[in-house]
C-alpha cells in the first residue's frame, strides 16, 4: 500500500464552511476500497460529505469503532443515502446498553445517568440495508487493512473512563468497552492507525496494532485519543511511548481534550495537527 487518503466528515470542531458536532466520522480510501469509520452523532457527516462533493454510494463498508451514540448516530442517515446493502463491521457489544454518568455518584439509576448507546434498533437498520458482521477478533478488510478486534489492557497507566457504564437489570456496572476498536492500515511507510475513541488506551491500541501486524513503525495516528481526563503523569508516559514508536503524523480529534492536545502539539510540533471536520490528507 503506497497511498492512503483520510477525510474527516464529522468532529467536534470544523474547518471553514463545515459543520461541527460532538462525535467522529472518518472516510479512509486505500487499496481501491472506501471504508467509513463511524458515522458521527447525527446530521453533520452527511452535510459535510455533500460539501466535499462525495458520493456516499461509493462507500464499500462501514466500521463502527464502538457503540456510543456520537459514533453511530449518523448510521441510519448514511444507509438511507447509500440505498443498498452494505456490510457494517463491529464488535458484538456495539449493541450493549451503554450509559454515562456525571459526577462520582453510586452506580445506580438516577438523574445523573443517561443512555449513550447506539440510538437505533437493529431491525430498522437491517431493513435499510445494513448487514452486520459482528466479531470479537480482528477482521481483515483488505490485503493490508484490518480492524484491531478486542484490544488488551496492557499498560499500567491507561484505564477506562469510570463514568461509562452498562445497565445490568436495575443496576449499572462499569463498561469494559470491549467493543472499542481501531482501523489499521499496513502501508509501505509504516502503520497508519485510525482511532474512534481509544477508550481502552491509545498506547494499548498502538501496541496491539504492532503485535497484530509484526510492524514496529507507527507512521500516523489519526482520530480520538480519549485523553481529555488523563493525568499529567499518564500524558508524560503516552508522549514518551509515541516518540519511541516514531510517529510522524499525529492528528487528534474529538475526545482528546484541549490540555492533552496542547501538550502533544508542543512536543510533536510540525508532526501534530488538529484533525477536525473537513480535514483531508493523503499519506505519506
Report on this model:
- This protein has 284 residues and is of the alpha/beta class.
- The chain contains 7 helices and 18 strands.
- The chain is 22% helix and 30% strand.
- The strands form 3 sheets. Strands 8-5-4-3-2-1-18 form a 7-stranded mixed beta sheet.
- It has helices at residues 44-51, 69-72, 75-82, 122-127, 202-213, 232-245, 258-268, and strands spanning 4-10, 25-30, 33-37, 61-63, 86-90, 98-101, 113-115, 130-134, 140-142, 145-147, 164-168, 171-174, 182-187, 190-195, 218-224, 249-253, 272-274, 280-283.
- It has a single domain (4-283), classed as Ribonuclease Z/Hydroxyacylglutathione hydrolase-like (Metallo-beta-lactamase, Chain A, 4-Layer Sandwich), CATH 3.60.15.10.
- The chain is globular and about 45 Å long.
- The protein starts with a strand and ends with a strand.
User: Which percent range describes the beta-strand content?
Assistant: 25-35%
What is the CATH superfamily classification?
A: Ribonuclease Z/Hydroxyacylglutathione hydrolase-like
Question: Can you tell me the CATH topology?
Answer: Metallo-beta-lactamase, Chain A
Strand line-up across the major sheet? 8-5-4-3-2-1-18
CATH architecture term: 4-Layer Sandwich
Estimate percent helicity.
10-25%
Q: What would you call the structural class?
A: alpha/beta
**Top-tier CATH class:** Alpha Beta
Shape: globular
Distance between the termini: 11 Å
Count of beta strands: 18
Number of helices: 7
Low-confidence stretches: 104-109
Q: Give helix and strand order, one letter per element, not per position.
A: EEEHEHHEEEHEEEEEEEHEHEHEE
Query: What is the residue-mean pLDDT, rounded to a whole number?
Result: 95
Our Rg estimate from Cα atoms comes to 18 Å
| Main pleated-sheet profile | 7 strands, mixed
Amino acid at each position: 500500500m503506497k497511498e492512503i487518503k483520510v477525510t474527516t466528515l464529522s468532529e467536534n470542531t470544523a474547518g471553514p464552511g463545515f459543520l461541527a458536532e460532538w462525535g467522529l466520522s472518518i472516510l479512509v480510501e486505500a487499496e481501491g476500497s472506501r471504508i467509513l469509520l463511524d458515522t458521527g452523532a447525527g446530521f453533520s457527516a452527511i452535510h459535510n460529505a455533500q460539501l466535499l462533493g462525495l458520493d456516499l454510494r461509493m462507500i464499500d463498508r462501514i466500521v463502527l469503532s464502538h457503540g456510543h451514540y456520537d459514533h453511530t448516530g449518523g448510521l441510519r442517515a448514511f444507509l438511507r443515502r447509500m440505498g443498498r446493502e452494505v456490510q457494517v463491521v463491529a464488535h458484538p457489544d456495539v449493541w450493549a446498553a451503554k450509559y454515562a454518568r456525571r459526577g462520582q455518584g453510586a452506580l445506580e439509576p438516577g438523574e445523573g445517568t443517561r443512555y449513550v448507546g447506539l440510538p437505533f434498533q437493529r431491525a430498522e437498520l437491517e431493513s435499510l440495508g445494513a448487514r452486520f458482521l459482528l466479531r470479537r477478533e480482528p477482521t481483515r478488510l483488505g490485503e493490508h487493512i484490518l480492524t484491531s478486534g478486542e484490544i488488551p489492557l496492557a499498560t499500567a497507566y491507561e484505564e477506562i473512563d469510570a463514568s461509562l457504564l452498562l445497565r445490568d437489570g436495575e443496576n449499572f456496572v462499569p463498561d469494559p468497552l470491549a467493543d472499542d476498536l481501531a482501523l489499521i492500515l499496513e502501508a509501505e511507510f509504516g502503520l497508519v492507525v485510525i482511532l474512534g475513541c481509544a477508550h481502552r488506551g491509545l498506547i494499548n491500541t498502538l501496541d496491539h496494532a504492532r503485535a497484530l501486524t509484526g510492524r514496529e513503525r507507527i507512521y500516523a495516528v489519526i482520530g480520538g485519543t480519549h485523553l481529555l481526563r488523563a493525568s499529567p503523569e499518564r500524558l508524560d508516559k503516552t508522549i514518551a511511548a509515541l516518540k519511541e514508536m516514531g510517529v510522524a503524523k499525529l492528528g487528534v480529534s474529538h475526545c482528546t481534550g484541549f490540555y492533552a492536545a496542547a501538550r502533544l502539539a508542543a512536543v510533536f510540533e510540525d508532526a501534530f495537527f488538529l484533525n477536525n471536520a473537513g480535514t483531508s490528507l493523503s499519506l505519506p
